[in-house]
Sequence to fold (116 residues):
Amino acid sequence: QVRLVESGGGLVQAGGSLRVSCVASGSRFSFSVMGWYRQAPGEQRELVAEIRSAGGITNYADSVKGRFTIFRDNAKNTVYLQMNSLESEDTAVYYCYGRTPVGRYWGQGTQVTVSS
Fold:
């Protein structure tokens, strides 16, 4: 069974930093893409950042460019999201996801709350 387990969420003041992590396990296939979505109350889930295993190509939402950095450790099937200069608008549940040739998988989510 494929599992993605997030950690590192919490409460932080505006302007602060936080790093969330996601460890994937149980897949027979490597994850070609891993990344993060987020969902704020009453809003749709939106892409935050993603990274490809080949070449480390990254993609960011415009709202987080220059503030967030995604990186991964392929050997550990782990993806990280370093979040700096956090804003109250970044408050959401952050979901990790991973894509393999046979499916797309989600973590259970971790809450990030930014106080203003």
About this structure: The radius of gyration is 13 Å. The chain has a mean pLDDT of 96. Residues 38 and 94 are 4 Å apart (CA to CA).
